[in-house]
Specification:
Length: 207
């Protein structure tokens, strides 16, 4: 049965954050809030935990997970970022964006697009997510908490606990997140392409 932490959305309690990080670092799967929706997360490199997330969401083997990072410098650990791209990312982070970039060798092969060797990365503007990342000292493997057959992500932490209490190790109640997905931008091959119009305004970007 999963644990359930009520964490303050603006001032996360350090002892609860530490316990949550301990669960992640021991190979656990958590539900946590972001600046767009609730998400499923686990530690990078935890193959069994990633497979559990695949089963919960019934994801195909080639589904692209996102790496959620604390800041831009951490993001650059996992992606190849030139000066022009860095300036663009600096203006857009933190926020409800996912950026598709060429991956570095720090990213395990099972996380990569099999042909393009790309990875989705984001830096969330959410105090709870940021507290988790700061204490972890590394990225979270993440995907939106949308269950099979549902059109929208789950928003009620109590409903999430009821539905997933035997499938995840922890549900973090961080209040209401919403159902609007991230905006997704590809920044590979020296071009910018909008792959999904989401929460962040993409009207000023060339498609």
């Amino acid at each position: 049965m999963s644990q359930f932490f009520q964490v303050h959305s603006d001032n996360p309690q350090p002892f609860l954050v530490q316990q949550a990080v301990g669960i992640v670092q021991s190979g656990g799967v958590i539900v946590y809030p972001t600046d767009s929706t609730y998400a499923l997360g686990c530690r990078l490199g935890e193959k069994k935990a990633i497979e559990r997330i695949r089963r919960i969401r019934q994801l195909p083997d080639r589904h692209n997970f996102t790496l959620v990072c604390r800041d831009l410098s951490e993001l650059a650990t996992y992606a190849i970022v030139d000066n022009r791209t860095y300036r663009f990312l600096k203006n857009k982070t933190p926020g409800a964006w996912v950026f598709i970039l060429k991956a570095t060798h720090q990213v395990p092969r099972l996380m990569l697009h099999p042909k393009r060797r790309t990875i989705g990365l984001r830096v969330p503007d959410n105090a709870i997510a940021q507290a988790l990342l700061a204490k972890m000292g590394g990225a979270l493997v993440s995907t939106t908490l949308t269950l099979p057959g549902d059109e929208y992500p789950l928003v009620d932490p109590y409903e999430i606990r009821q539905m997933l209490e035997h499938q995840v190790d922890l549900v973090i109640d961080g209040g209401y997140c919403g159902v609007t997905l991230t905006s997704v931008i590809s920044l590979t091959e020296g071009t910018m392409k909008i792959l999904r119009h989401g929460k962040e305004d993409t009207t000023e970007l060339s498609d």
